[in-house]
């Protein structure tokens, strides 16, 4: 929790929390800025934590999220990551049926409470991966993730220096149900190490990243 709070504070104050190497020559946040940031954290975020050793279930998360909506007026819920929830299911229920039922519960919660839900899921282990971004069907569990979501976004970071800039993140919008919200396409963001912010990449960097991404997409799958 403390580490998560530190990262949020650095994004808010735009200064490093520690006087450490990652901050470079940037000035460390002051005590007054720290206190202002703590107040902002308390007013903006409400953490849902499972203190027990057991994994939390989706029903458990939604019950506490409901309380946060009613008590604090929360309008956004981030479930991160899906892979660490308790996914026990009846023996007569397939994984596909379970995922479909779970996503239906989450959508009903969002609609009933007017609360946007960001559901973060990591891809399964990819075979013959060529280094490009995964797609929505690569999420471990079921294709229902892309079928039932309103908006599907893939966040990908290049890890091969020969394939483009390493500090650029590719944001792949793969599904948009309502055209008023936006459209399918890619965007490129640069990572600011000091504050942990992501900003629009400059035109030259974005162009290089886009060309590299296109080349990776054309590359044959690796044998493995």
Comma- or semicolon-separated keywords:
globular, single chain, four-stranded antiparallel beta sheet, 36% helix, 224 residues, alpha+beta, two-stranded parallel sheet
- Biggest sheet: strands side by side, in what order? 3-4-5-6
Please outline the major beta sheet.
Answer: 4 strands, antiparallel
Rounded to the nearest angstrom, the radius of gyration is 20 Å
Give the terminus-to-terminus CA distance.
Answer: 38 Å
Write up what this structure looks like.
This protein is α+β, with helices and mostly antiparallel strands and 224 residues long. Among the domains are: 45 residues, no CATH class; 73 residues, no CATH class. Helix content is 36%, strand content 16%. The protein contains 6 helices and 6 strands, in the order αααβαβαββββα. Strand 5 and strand 6 form a beta hairpin.
Short overview:
One of its GO terms (molecular function) is single-stranded DNA binding. The chain has 224 residues and is of the alpha+beta class.
What is the topology?
Elements: H1 2-13, H2 31-44, H3 58-72, E1 76-79, H4 95-113, E2 116-119, H5 144-148, E3 151-157, E4 168-176, E5 185-192, E6 197-200, H6 203-218
Parallel strand pairs: 1-2
Antiparallel strand pairs: 3-4, 4-5, 5-6
Helix pairs in contact: 1-2, 3-4
């Amino acid at each position: 929790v403390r580490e998560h709070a530190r990262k949020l504070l650095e994004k808010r104050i735009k200064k490093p929390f520690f006087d450490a190497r990652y901050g470079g020559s940037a000035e460390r946040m002051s005590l007054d800025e720290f206190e202002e940031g703590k107040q902002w954290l308390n007013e903006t975020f409400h953490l849902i934590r499972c203190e027990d050793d057991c994994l939390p279930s989706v029903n458990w998360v939604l019950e506490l999220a409901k309380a946060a909506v009613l008590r604090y007026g929360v309008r956004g819920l981030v479930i991160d990551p899906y892979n660490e929830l308790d996914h026990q299911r009846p023996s007569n229920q397939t994984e596909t049926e379970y995922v479909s039922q779970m996503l239906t519960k989450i959508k009903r919660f969002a609609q009933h409470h007017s609360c946007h839900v960001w559901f973060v899921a990591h891809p399964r282990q990819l075979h013959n991966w060529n280094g490009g971004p995964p797609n929505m069907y690569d999420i471990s569990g079921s294709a229902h993730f892309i079928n039932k979501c309103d908006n599907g976004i893939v966040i990908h970071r290049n890890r091969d220096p020969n394939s483009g800039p390493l500090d650029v993140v590719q944001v792949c919008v793969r599904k948009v149900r309502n055209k008023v919200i936006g459209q399918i396409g890619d965007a490129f963001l640069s990572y600011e190490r000091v504050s942990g912010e992501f900003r629009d990449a400059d035109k030259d960097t974005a162009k290089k990243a886009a060309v590299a991404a296109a080349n990776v997409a054309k590359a044959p799958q690796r044998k493995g």
